[in-house]
UniProtKB/TrEMBL annotation:
This is DUF1330 domain-containing protein. Residues 35-110 form the DUF1330 domain. Gene3D superfamilies: 3.30.70.100. PANTHER family: DUF1330 DOMAIN-CONTAINING PROTEIN (PTHR40257:SF1), PTHR40257. It comes from Klenkia sesuvii. InterPro entries: Dimeric_a/b-barrel, DUF1330.
Length: 120
């Protein structure tokens, strides 16, 4: 299952850029014991990287039992993060210091969705 964006994913993100801010939808499914590792990653993201790239958490919440979904489409956490631009997001994930903490996210998750959204 996909967990982390790859270089081709980031190129496509930038190529499809309509301009302006982007809100990244994160749907997260944790591995056994992964919540603790993700919390360490989230602390670094919140305290260091989001301020550095002028981004902010819009919403974070634990997933409940789905009302409408196919079996296996439930998520442990839903997270919305607003970035001033797709370029800012791309710069953040390429930041060498950020790269030093991404293993915490990768090892915490069994599956993830990371989808850019734009205001309507």
């Amino acid at each position: 299952m996909a967990i982390d964006p790859r270089g081709a994913d980031l190129k496509r993100l930038l190529a499809e850029d309509p301009g302006g801010p982007v809100v990244m939808l994160n749907l997260l499914r944790f591995a056994e014991g992964g919540r603790e590792s993700y919390d360490q990653y989230a602390a670094a993201l919140r305290d260091t990287f989001l301020p550095r790239y002028s981004a902010e958490i819009v919403y974070v919440g634990d997933g409940g039992t789905p009302l409408v979904a196919e079996e296996g489409q439930d998520w442990d956490v839903v997270l919305l993060v607003r970035y001033p631009s797709r370029e800012a997001f791309s710069r953040m994930v390429a930041d060498p210091e950020y790269q030093q903490v991404t293993h915490l996210r990768s090892q915490a998750l069994t599956e993830a969705v990371l989808q850019p959204t734009t205001p309507r």
